[in-house]
Each structure stands twice: as C-alpha cells, then as structure tokens.
Design brief:
301 residues; 41% helix; alpha/beta; globular; single chain
C-alpha cells in the first residue's frame, strides 16, 4: 500500500470515528480500496481508539460570521477545458480567468475529485486576481463526473500511480503558464491535494514560485532542495494526524532555504476550509483565505 492509499484509508476511518460515516458505509468504502473485512475492521478500531479523546470541532456558521464562504462574493465562473497531457492523454480541468491576472494558481482537489467546491475555489482565486486551473486527476477514467458514487471516485484515485499525478500536475502548470504568460505561478491543494502539493514540490525543479498546501501530509523523507517556491503551510489544531508531519515539512523547508511559514488554525479540524463538508469552520476558513492571498500577493505579485 502506498502512502497516499494509506492516507485515503485513514481518512475514511477517521470520518467513521467522528461519526460522519456509519460502520457499514466505512467498511464498504474501505472494501472499494481493497481492504478485506478483518483489515478494515482493525483500521476502524485503531482510528476510533486514537480519536476517543479528541473534542468535536465542527462549527456551524455563527451570526457574526459572513454567510458566504471566503472569496465567494467576488468569485468568477469556471469553464471546463481539455488540454494535452503526458503520453498524448487528454486532461480535463476547470479554468477561471482573472480580468487582469497578477499570477496563476494551480488548484489541486481532494480525494473526491474535481467537485463543485473545488470549482468554486478556482473561481474565487480568479476573483481575487489570480487566474486558476484545477486539473481533474480522474481524467483518464472519464473525469470525476463519470462517477455517480463519490466513494468509487476516491477508490479510483487511490489506484493511480503517484508518478502519474505528478506528471498530470506538471502538465497543468505548463498549461497555466501558457494561459498567463510572464506571470508567476503558485499552487494550492486541500487534504489529499495538499499532500500532492508537497509531492509536487519534492519532484524536482518547476515553475512554482509559491505554494499553500492545506492540511496535506508531508511525504516520508521528502526533499525540497530543488524547489524555490515560497511555502505557506495551513494546518488545523485538532488534526493531529496531519499535524504530526508538520515538523518534517518545516525541517525540509529550512534545509531548502526557501521562504516559508506555517499557520495552525485554532479550534478547527481537518478539511475546515470545505464549506460543503461537516468540519467547515468559518472563522478559520476566512483567516486562512486572508493569509493565502497575502502570501500570493507577496510571492506572486
């Protein structure tokens, strides 16, 4: 099992531990990943045991918090596009063009694929002045929309080799560079996509000038020495699983010598930025968005 496959499996088990999935559904989803009943049950038990002392952190929007998710008020519409990827494969993506782009942002989706939420975030970046592109990493399987069962989309993502993800994301950077010529590029990813941001940074030199991974696990022995990107890592105080990799990320960034900062959102859990999910934390999401735009304003222009 690859680290990304393990990560996806643990996501399912923690959703069960938090009461977001019943046992039957959690076992079904782990079965789609190739887990037998004994192995799946053991993983659920282990994650439930680790989670027993964690307080619930999901927050309903308060009266003092704007009703619209951060950036939504100025978001621009996205357009579905296709472009040439590696090995003559056609890649699908959502594209949003800023009127006068200050830079470009590659948006990397969660383990559910290219959803309406990710399209929304792509449009929010464009509304903030950064033309944005979100590659559908399920393009080879007909795209995310081809899956009526979100769990099956997640299972398909778990079977795609890590090297293919990196190749497709690099093709996305190339396409983004063609669409915003002469502008600096950044990348933002969430959860599974946040982990892919780290992998992209560790994959060798690229056009990236900045990156803002949201609660993405740092890869074992990740080496960022070939990356020149300025990195803002976003974490959540209650997300102990991913936060456990934060020190390794900081150490790798220190060794690389690139500008970097880490922010841990208080009173928030994994996936707190996703306004369509049960762990959405409006205050943390608004502050994270402000910090990301400040970061890109400094390092992209």
């Amino acid at each position: 099992m690859t680290p990304l496959q393990r990560y996806i499996a643990e996501e399912i088990a923690l959703d069960h531990a938090d009461g977001l999935l019943n046992r039957r559904e959690a076992l079904r989803r782990l079965g789609l990943l190739g887990f037998g009943i004994p192995a799946a049950a053991a993983l659920l038990a282990a994650c439930s045991s680790q989670n027993n002392d964690q307080p619930a952190t999901s927050q309903p929007p308060s009266a003092a918090t704007p009703a619209t998710p951060p950036g939504s008020g100025s978001a621009l519409p996205t357009t579905p596009i296709t472009f040439a990827g590696p090995d003559n494969r056609q890649l699908r993506a959502a594209w949003a063009a800023a009127a006068q782009p200050r830079g470009g942002v590659l948006v990397i989706h969660e383990n559910k694929g290219l959803t309406d939420h990710i399209r929304s975030v792509t449009g929010r970046f464009a509304g903030a002045g950064y033309s944005a592109l979100a590659v559908d990493l399920l393009s080879e399987k007909g795209g995310t929309a081809a899956f009526t069962d979100p769990a099956q989309a997640t299972a398909e993502l778990s079977n795609i080799p890590q090297e293919q993800f990196i190749a497709d994301l690099r093709a996305g950077l190339d396409e983004l560079g063609r669409r915003v010529p002469g502008k600096k590029l950044g990348t933002t990813g969430f959860c599974f996509g946040g982990g892919l941001v780290w992998l992209l940074l560790a994959s060798g030199p690229s056009a990236l000038a900045a990156a803002t991974p949201f609660y993405g696990p740092f890869p074992d022995k990740g080496d960022l020495s070939a990356s020149k990107a300025a990195v803002l890592g976003i974490y959540a105080a209650a997300d102990s699983r991913v936060d456990a990799t934060r020190q390794a990320a900081e150490d790798a960034l220190d060794r690389a010598g690139a500008p970097h900062d880490m922010w841990v959102a208080p009173n928030a859990d994994h996936a707190f930025f996703n306004d369509t999910g049960p762990r959405y934390a409006p205050d943390a999401a608004n502050e994270a968005w402000r910090r990301v735009l400040d970061w890109y304003g400094t390092h992209l222009g």
